[in-house]
């Protein structure tokens, strides 16, 4: 299904389906009385059995609960850190929200550090709140990202890279070893062996935004060929 | 599958000849600027504006509204500092855009629209509103509907002319700007200046309402091209090679 919809359009299929069973409306769709109305321009998607959402192009991040994001610590204010995650407001991060952190054993986080965290509070009326541990108190992949390089991209690219069937990272691994963290707020952290490789990786990822799956593997091969010849 | 906003036939009663219902050619380039959240270079004939938007971003404490987003508009003329006339335009554009935006979804934020006039050959306000609407559309801020602005004048021979160029507008007696929504084609904004008869106003409104469909069709086409280009990546479908960001349109008549 690849319809492009504009704000104000009605999704009659969703309205019909709602008469039979519950329908889930995702981003970009709103219910107004009995009507399903589009509020963002983009591609309409449907997933069996009952979910509709709009895939829209966006550069500006709006916090969503549960998203993994990359942020920059801007200030240390008593018990919390202020973290810039690219949204309209800075997120707060408690110093206790790190693995094995206690009141005595404070984590070593300083303004300017880059963090990979998960949003546990993200409501339109509340300040977003980050944590760097999972529900059982382990850090997992979250925490301070040392060294490396952070770049910005559109939210669509970040979502695309994280999609399960996206071949980009898999074909890049064939070319060189690297570390990557992708934040859903449109930030990508990269670390490769050398500066040259990091820049090449960054360019390959940004170039993949408008590429099809076959073109992606071609881009990755090219990068490898240029770097190692 | 999708019910598009009702397709009113452009001239239901056939009151106007196709010669009357003609807009100047519309062209648009999306995202010419890299640092803003979304931008559009929008031209209608020789009139040209560059619009960009940021949002939802941090709000200044004096503009903070706990119930809805604050919408601001900055209009920059081609040369010099903004004059009082430009400030008036700014307000018209801001209020028009605010009525189309779902500001309640982003309380305590700012949605900022910047408009740089590049060339004013008549109808700059209409062009700016259309450009701003496109920038908001691709910026991904929630909207109730899209808006289309049409400029109209009463010329020196007392005739109503739709979207004139600057030659036709010499010695105009009155000028109108009508903004319509995409749902029911209701009026969102009317801005008039000069002296005119009520009948002329009604004529101008009917003509503009009919012509707004051209602009709505243009939005749909350019947004489709934009998304076919940027979102087809995950699909295995053949890429739409003809989709370019710059859509060249022929002179659009009805």
UniProtKB/TrEMBL annotation, chain A:
This is Exosome complex component RRP40. The keyword Nucleus applies. Keywords: Cytoplasm, Exosome, Nucleus, RNA-binding, rRNA processing. One of its GO terms (cellular component) is nucleolus. It is found in: Cytoplasm; Nucleus, Nucleolus. Transmembrane segments: none annotated. Belongs to the RRP40 family. Its main location: cytoplasm. The gene is EXOS3. One of its GO terms (biological process) is nuclear polyadenylation-dependent rRNA catabolic process. Residues 23-60 form the Exosome complex exonuclease Rrp40 N-terminal domain. Gene3D superfamilies: 2.40.50.100, K Homology domain, type 1 (3.30.1370.10), Nucleic acid-binding proteins (2.40.50.140). GO terms for molecular function: RNA binding. Residues 148-194 form the K Homology domain.
TrEMBL record, chain B:
Its main location: nucleus. It holds the Pfam family RNase_PH. It is found in: Nucleus. Residues 23-142 form the Exoribonuclease phosphorolytic domain. One of its GO terms (biological process) is rRNA processing. It comes from the Eukaryota. Signal peptide: none annotated. The keyword DNA-binding does not apply. The lineage of its organism: Eukaryota, Metazoa, Ecdysozoa, Arthropoda, Hexapoda. The gene is EXOS5. This is (Mediterranean fruit fly) hypothetical protein. One of its GO terms (molecular function) is RNA binding. Belongs to the RNase PH family. Keywords: Exosome, Nucleus, rRNA processing. GO terms for cellular component: cytoplasmic exosome (RNase complex); nuclear exosome (RNase complex); nucleolus.
């Amino acid at each position: 299904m690849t319809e492009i919809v504009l704000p104000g359009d009605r999704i009659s299929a969703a309205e019909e389906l709602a008469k039979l069973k519950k329908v889930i409306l995702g981003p970009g769709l709103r219910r107004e009385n009995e009507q399903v109305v589009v509020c963002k321009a983009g591609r309409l998607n449907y997933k069996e059995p009952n979910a509709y959402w709009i895939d829209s192009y966006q550069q500006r991040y709006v916090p969503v609960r549960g998203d993994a994001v990359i942020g920059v610590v801007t200030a240390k204010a008593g018990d919390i850190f202020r973290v810039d995650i690219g949204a309209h407001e800075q997120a707060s991060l408690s110093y206790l929200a790190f693995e094995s952190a206690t009141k005595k054993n404070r984590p070593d986080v300083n303004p300017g550090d880059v963090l990979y965290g998960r949003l546990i509070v993200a409501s339109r009326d509340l300040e977003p709140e980050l944590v760097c541990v999972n529900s059982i108190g382990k850090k997992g992949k979250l925490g301070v990202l040392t060294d490396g390089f952070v770049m910005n991209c559109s939210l669509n690219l970040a979502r695309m890279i994280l999609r399960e069937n996206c071949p980009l990272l898999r074909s890049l691994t064939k070319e060189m070893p690297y570390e990557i963290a992708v934040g859903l707020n449109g930030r990508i952290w990269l670390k490769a062996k050398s500066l040259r490789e990091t820049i090449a990786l960054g360019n390959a990822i940004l170039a993949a935004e408008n590429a099809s799956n076959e073109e992606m593997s071609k881009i990755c091969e090219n990068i490898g060929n240029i770097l190692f010849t | 599958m999708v019910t598009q906003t009702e397709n009113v036939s452009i001239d239901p009663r056939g009151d106007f000849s196709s010669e009357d219902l003609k807009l100047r050619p519309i062209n648009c380039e999306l995202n010419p600027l890299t640092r803003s959240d979304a931008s559009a270079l929008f031209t209608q004939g020789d009139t040209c504006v560059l619009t960009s938007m940021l949002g939802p971003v941090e709000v200044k404490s004096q503009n903070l509204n706990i119930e809805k987003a604050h919408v601001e508009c900055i209009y920059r003329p081609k040369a010099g500092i903004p004059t009082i006339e430009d400030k008036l335009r700014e307000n018209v554009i801001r209020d028009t855009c605010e009525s189309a935006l779902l500001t309640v979804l982003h309380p305590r934020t700012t949605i900022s629209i910047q408009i740089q006039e590049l060339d004013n050959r008549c109808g700059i306000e209409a062009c700016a509103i259309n450009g701003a609407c496109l920038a908001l559309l691709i910026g991904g801020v929630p909207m109730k509907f899209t808006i289309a602005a049409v400029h109209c004048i009463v010329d020196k021979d007392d005739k109503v002319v739709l979207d004139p160029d600057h030659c036709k507008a010499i010695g105009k007696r009155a000028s109108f700007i009508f903004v319509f929504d995409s749902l029911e084609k209701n009026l969102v904004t009317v801005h008039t200046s000069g002296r005119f008869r009520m009948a002329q106003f009604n004529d101008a409104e009917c003509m503009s309402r009919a012509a707004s469909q051209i602009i709505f069709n243009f939005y749909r086409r350019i947004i489709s091209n934009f998304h076919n280009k940027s979102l087809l990546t995950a699909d295995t479908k053949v890429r739409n090679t003809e989709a370019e960001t710059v859509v060249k349109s022929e002179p659009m008549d009805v």
